[in-house]
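Two entries, shown back to back:
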Amino acid sequence: MGDTAVKGTGQTEVPAEASTETLETSETLTLDEYRARARVWIRENLRPVPAAGPAPVGMRTTETPPEVIAAGRALQRKLFDAGYAGITWPREYGGQGLGGEYERAFLEEARGYQMPNLGIAGGTTFGVCAMTMLAHASPDFLRRHIPRILTAEELFVQFFSEPEAGSDLAGVRSRAVREGGRWILNGAKIWSSGAYYADWGMCLARTDWDVPKHRGLTWFAVPIGAKGVTVRRIRQITGDAEFCEEFFDNVELTDDDVIGDVNDGWTVAQTMLMFERGGGLSHGGPVRKVPQGIAPDLVELARSVGRIDDPQARDLIVRAHVDDVARRALMARLGGLMRAEPGRAAHLASYAKLASGVHDPVRANLAMAIGGPDAVAWEENDEAAGRTAIGFLNSRFMSIAGGTNEVQRNGIGERVLGLPREPSFDSGKPFREVLRDARNWSGRAG
């Protein structure tokens, strides 16, 4: 695997294409040399993950302390300065412009080391918002924002759902009106994960009320610290307050803040939903460490509560392991299909989202059955002991957030399997008329 070569890292000036034909310098690195150099840098600059390791996904609280976010921003900047941020992102916007094999090599070498922890807003920034921007935003917009994202100077969240527009996302009522060369934003959003510490929000607003609801939408980048933006945190069942609601009162924006084309926001929204629901699979996604052995977190749980030799507990562990293996196989299969058929990727992503929504509650219940009374009562400040209960409380997250299981099943049925669409009585009407009819509807036939 040493035929492909790139310019030496350590600077942010890396060729946009990972091939010898595009290089204009003799200072090149093969993929093997790139991996070797990355290995040295990682060992000299990153800290090993503590022996206990991070809590399994879904088994931790969702709030990230401010000091951890601050440290994550500093470490992300360090990665950027060394040439290891945005490895596959375009060079003209601050990335390295390399192929996915280089990113995989770096992440494989970084296994076992602490990477930047930017909390849930970090995942939204890099996994959803930035990917959507790269697909739709103007070059000028990307030149302003993408380098700052890569250095973690800007963290973005989604201003998408509204109190009256959840599953029906095209029904948003937050409005942006053009006045004197500016856009004036008013309205409200909800369920914005991590907005209380993020810097910007990608906001979907209605800009034309006289066309059907899918056609009059536009995306804007909204600075969270702008005058007229209010963020309130929402307390969750776990005791955390990671979700937020936002209120916009005459927030001034400019054309520079528009993402994509005016009134074509639904096209942008489809891209965002693809990434939110598992679209990273279509690009190979980040390298994730496959757990070694049979459901190691549940084995540890069974051992900690004295049930490692209990036949019933062992049966539950194996059931979870079988589900884990099947889920990983499904994700690998979906990734291949999405890369082979990019035009269907947005719809195929619904399978990944649905799999998580179905799998997570089942696995959480298995963990509770293994833990028994010890899973619902533990010594104060014993973080490890509370993971099973936190995982159970969080287990319905993926069956709701980003589109419910029912929404995913509808999408799969209609857009993948070709089944008849559900009846729709408002898709062809101007949205203004839809709202008028809804206010006047009495519920009586005739």
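entry 2 starts here
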Amino acid sequence: MEVIPCNTTIGAVISGVDLARCDAQTFEGVYQAFLKHKVVFFRDQFLSPESQLRLAARFGELEAPHPFFPHVFAYPQVSEIETTLGNPPGKSYWHTDMTWQSAPPKCSVLCAQHLPDEGGDTIWVNMEAVYASLSEKLKQRLDGKTAMHAVHGFAGSRFDDVGSGGESLVDNISKDMKAVHHPIVVKHPETGNPTLYLNEQFTRSLDDKYLEDEGVTLTDLFARSHAADFQVRFQWQEGSVAIWDNRCTQHFAVTDYGDKPRKLHRVVVKGTEPKAYLLNHV
């Protein structure tokens, strides 16, 4: 197995591994690379739904089927992220998956099925590096603070189903999903590292209204979160697999390919409730 970092901050390409059949020692090497590099990439894997589910289950217990995404027939935990002719993707947001949940996912396994001839890359950002780049004064202001997260960005999208009366299926499902409140700075449950835990798709407001009086806004924090210095951009090929740590990254789907067919399969692993990283109690 060979692990080649994409840059000094985030991402690594791993070769010499058959993800469908790797032994325990090889998988442990993959897992340690996953923790170190935040997102790991593989080529020429061509995982079946069964193989993808087995691989994801090695990272932990699998999430329930996604409430909005369609899924592979007979495999409800394998979501289909698909663009078809006449059905282009909508607006893309930087996000950490499913932070509207009290316990957002640990990680995701995404496998490319078919792709446009060009375009459709995905970008990840290391949110631990983003936090480390903040001034000590701003870190003190964010210490112990929380923010509200809620479902947003799916209504009216390609993942919605609008009835004859104009009602949104997403809205009907999500109306009973109560907002949750997560620490703004989270301690990674395995490495102990602090990470800025905000994202523009699901973080809706800061709970401490005095932060804005001190000049701290979500707009500014989102802008800091998208710093190119802390990113990696991955160009998909058929059979490519990406596995990312959802606890310390955000990602962004580049929708520059119109309605050219593109399909990926995603399986998500359950996480735990985020815990605050406190400067004076680390």
